[in-house]
Amino acid sequence: MPDAPNPYLPLVYRRAFQQQDPALVQVSFAIAVLDKYRGAPAFSLIRSDTVGRIKREGGWTIDVGIGEEGRTVHACLFDLMNALPPEERDHWAQHVVSLPLSQHFLQMRLAAGSCIDDGEARPWE
């Protein structure tokens, strides 16, 4: 039986949208994002059943939620942008997971003025 919908998700995004603040926006990652830090000197990883923390001693700390029965972790966009040093951001970006997204839409967002020819324009019914 699937889990019940998370009642906090709409609240988090409603607040982010209303306050025009990306601090609460969640980004999800494959659990493999943590492999780099497991057992590495100067890093500690701790967790409970549903939340965790990755810490570089004397450096950065990021708190994460644990989702999908431990297959993913998620964190606030604000924390990712502000806590992670630039040299760590590419590593995290390589492990992003999400719902299926339109490749063409992402291409359009990355390159303004992109011409996407993927079918005739039509009313959305």
Task: Offer a few descriptive terms.
24% strand; six-stranded antiparallel β-sheet; single chain
Task: Give an overview of the whole structure.
This protein has 125 residues and is an alpha+beta fold. It has one domain. It has four helices and six strands; from the N terminus they run αβββββααβα. β2 and β3 (51-56) form a beta hairpin. It starts with 7 loop residues before the first helix and ends in a 15-residue tail after the last helix.
**Helix/strand structural class:** alpha+beta
pLDDT below 50 for ≥5 consecutive residues: which ranges? none
Based on DSSP secondary structure assignment, what is the total number of beta strands?
A: 6
What proportion of the residues form beta strands (DSSP E)? 15-25%
Helix coverage percent: 25-40%
Q: Can you describe this structure in just a few lines?
A:
The chain is of the alpha+beta class and 125 residues long. It has helices spanning 8-18, 77-83, 86-93, 103-110, and strands at residues 26-30, 43-47, 51-56, 61-67, 72-76, 96-97. The model has no long low-confidence stretch (mean pLDDT 89).
Helix-strand layout with pairing:
Blueprint: H1 8-18, E1 26-30, E2 43-47, E3 51-56, E4 61-67, E5 72-76, H2 77-83, H3 86-93, E6 96-97, H4 103-110
Antiparallel strand pairs: 1-5, 1-6, 2-3, 3-4, 4-5
